[in-house]
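Contributing: when you submit paired examples, paste them exactly as shown. First protein:
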Amino acid sequence: MKTVHYPLFKREDLDGFFALFQNNLANFVIIAITMLAMGYPAAIVYGKVIPGVAMAVLFGNLYYAHMAKKLAEKEGRTDVTALSYGVSTPVMFIYLFGVLKPALVLTGDPELAWKIGLAACFLGGVIEVLGSFIGKWVHSRLPRAAMMGALAGVAFAFIGGELFFRTYEMPVVGLIVMTIILIGLITKKPMPFKIPAALFAIVIGTFIAYSIGNSNLGQIKEGFSAFGFYLPIPTLGLFHGLQLLSTEMIGLFAILLPISIYNFIETMNNVEAMASAGDRYSVQEAQAADGTGTIIGTIFGGVFPTTVYIASIGSKWMNAGRGYSILNGFVFLFASVFGIIAAMASIIPVPVIAPILVFVGISMISQAFDSVENKHYPAVVIAMFPYFANYIMTRFNFAAGEAVANLSHAIVPLGQGAMFTGLIWGSILVCLIDESYKRASAFALVAAALSVTGFMHAPRLAFNISSEYALGYGLMAVMLMGFHFLYRKNHTAED
C-alpha cells in the first residue's frame, strides 16, 4: 500500500461545501414550508425534524470522509472525492405527500403523525441496511447505462428541471445567479477575489432580490426571529409510531416498501456514478452507511431517509476532497441547532438557491452519457423517460386529476414505480444493442413480476394476476426469446 498524504481540507473543498450545503438547505426549505403549510407546528419542524436529520447528515458525512481516506490510501491517490450525503429529493416528496400528509389527515394530531413518520423512516433505514447484503449482486447484474439513465431521469425531472423552473420565479435574480453558477462551476472560471462561485452567487443573488423588491425586509425580520436553540434530543416516539404503523396506519406499508427499495437502488446508482468518474467505493458499505444514518436520524427526531447524494458528481467536478463533507456535517448541525436553517429558509429566496441544484442536474445527466459506451446512449435516454411521468404525477399529489388525464391516462401508471420501469427499459435496450436477447427476455419477465405484485404501474402493493402490464411484459419476454432462437439460427447458418 502506497503511503500518500490525503489532505483533510483543500481550497476546492470550499466550493464543494457550499454546493452540498445549499443542496441540503434547498431541500430543508421545501420541507419546512411544506410541513408548516400542512399543519405541523414549528416546534416539530424546527425543533425535532431538522435537528434529527442533521444528526443523520453529520454521521453520514463523517463516515463518507472516512471512506474517502481509506480509498485514497488503498489506491495511493490524493484526488479522491468523498461521497456527498443528504436527503433524496424524490424520496422527500414521497414522504411529505405519501406518509406525513396522510398520517396527519387520518390522526388529526401533528405529534402522532410525526411519530408515524419516525417509524416509517426507521423501517426505511432497516430495509436499506438489510439490502446492503444483496447490493453487490444487484450492482453486478444491472447494466451501467440502465442505472445511469434512471439516475439521469431523476436529475432531469426533479433536480435540474424543477429548480430551473424555480429560477424563473424571480427572472432578474435567477438569471444573474444562473450565469454566475455556469461560469464558476461549469467553465471553472474564478470569481472576483477568488470567492467560491456558489457563495458568490448566493450573496449577489440575495442582495439583488432585496434591492429590487423581489424580497421584502419583513422576511429578514422573520428570519431573525427564528433563531433559537433546537438541541437534537433522542426520542422514543418511533416506538409509539411503530405501534400505530402496525395497526391504524398499516396501509402505509404499500408506500414504504417500494420507496425503501427505491432508496436502496438510488444509493447503488449514485455510487456507480462516482465509480464512472474514477472513485470506486463499496456499494455494500455505502448502503449500510446510508441505512444506519437514517436510523440515527429517527432516534433524534428525523423523518426523512438519507442517501448518497446526487451531488457527488458535482463535487467530483469541483475537485473537492473529503474536507467539504466533514465541514458540511458540522456546519449543518450547528445551523440546525441554533435556528440558522430556519432563518436562512426565510431570508434567502428559493430562486437564489435553485441554480446550484440546476448545476447538479446538469453534471449528473452529463456524467450518465460520459460513463457509458456511445452505442448505449439510447438506453440512457429511454431509462430517463419514466421519471418525466413520475414528475408530472407527483406534482398533482399522485392523484393525477383531469389535468393529467387530458395529457394521457397512462402518465400515472407509468410514473408509479418509475425507478423500476427506467431500470428495466434501460437494461432491455442494452441487451438488445448487445444482441443478448435471452437476457432481455429475463428482464421483461422481471418487469412482469413487478407489475403483478404492484411494484410497477400500480398505486399500492397488491397481487394482480390480471394486470395488463404484466401480460404485456410477459408476451414481450416470449417474443424476445423467439428473436433469441431466430438470430442464433441465422448466425449458425451463416457460419
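Second protein:
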Amino acid sequence: MKKKLFVFIVTSLFINLFAVQINIAVESIEDQIQLLNSQIENFEKQNPGIDVEIYLIPSYPGSTYKFYGTFVVTNAKEPTILSLDMEWINEFSPFLVSLNQDTEYFDVNNFIPQILEMVTINGELKAIPYYVETGVLYYRKDLLEKYGYEVPKTWNELITIAKDISQKEGIEGFVWPGARYEELTTFFLEIFYSHGGKIFEGDNFVLEQPENKEKALESLKILNKIISEEISPKGVTTYREEECRNIFQSGDAVFMRNLSYAWHLINSEGSAVSGKVGVAPIPKTEFTNQHVSVLEGKALAINPNASDEEKKAAKQFIKYLTSNESQAQRLIQLNFLPTNLEVFNEPTISEVDPNLLNFRSSLENLVLKPKSPIYTEISFAIQNNVYDALTGRISVEKALNNMIAEIGFLLR
C-alpha cells in the first residue's frame, strides 16, 4: 500500500514538473474567477500534462485596454491567452496568432455568423469567440400588469409607458448607462441601428450621408427627450451598468437598459424585484422590422510570443472553454450568452432557469460595432459628442456635426 502511494506521489510530481505551463488573462471580478477556477480544475484533470493559471488584469473601464496596449509595446511573453473585447480584435490583430489552420480544435461553423465576422480580420481567424453580452430591456412585469400595459416594442411606446408609470409610482421611468464610456457608444448605436442607420458601409464612411445623418440626429433627440421629460434622472449621465442595476434592483425604476449579466443579480436572494422582472429585446422603430442587438462580448486570442508547446496547450484550453458544456455553465452562473445557439438546447439550462432561454432572441439579429483598426478612437468620438449633447454642453446638431468631422479626420 505504501509503495503504491509512493509511486502515485512520484508520478504526480513528475507530471507537474514537466507539465506545460500556460495562463489566461482575466479581469479581477470575483464570480467570474470562481467559475473559471472550477473549469480549470476540471480541464487539468482531463489534461494532466497542462497546468493553467489565472493572470489577473485590471477590470475598471479603460484599464483593461491600457493593459493590452502595454502588452503589445513590451512584446511580453505572458499572458498566454488574451481575453479581448470583440471590438478590439481588429486593432490588436497584428499581434495575435492566426488560427485559420486549427480546425482540429475549433469548428467555426458552430459560431453565430456575425460573431465569427467580428473576429476574422482580412480572412484570418484571429480569436475564438468566448461569450456574448448584449444590451437588453429589463422591465417590471408587476407594474406593467398593474397598469394594463404590454411590453414596449418601440422607443415611443417605452417613453409613453415609462412616463406614466413612473409618475404614478414615484420612481424613475428608465435607467441606462449614460456616463462617458464605451457603453454609451453602444447604447447610442442600439438606437441608431434601430432607425436603420449606418456609420460604415463596407469600408466606406457613410454617416455624413443625409439619410444616415438624419437618423443619427433622431437618435440623439430620443436620448435628449428621455432626460428633458424626466423619464430618466439628470444623473443618468453619470451611470454605468452597476449604478443602473442598483437602482433597478432596489425597485426604483420601471425600465432598465443593461447587459445580460444583470439577470441573475436582480433575481438573487434579497433583491427587491426578484421574480418581478421580465426581459425583452432593445426597442425598435418604424424604420426596422426586427429588433437589433449590438454585439459585445469577449474573444480568446493567443500570444504569438508563446512557445509552440504553449500555443498548442492554449488551443486545447480554449477548445474546452468554448465547448457547449462550458458555455452552458457560464450562461447559468454568470448569464454570459453563448456564441453557439445550440447551447440553449442544453437541458441543464431550462432546468435551472427557463427564463434564460428568453435571451436567445437577443442573439438572432446581432449588428456589429464599426469594424476598424481604430475603433477605440471612433468610439471616443461617438461617446464624447453624445455625452456633450446629453449634458447640454452643445446642441444635438452640433454634437452630430462634431462626431462626423472627428471620425472623418481619424479616417484620413
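If you have annotations for the second protein, write them as plain sentences, like these:
The longest helix spans residues 210-228.
The mean pLDDT is 93.
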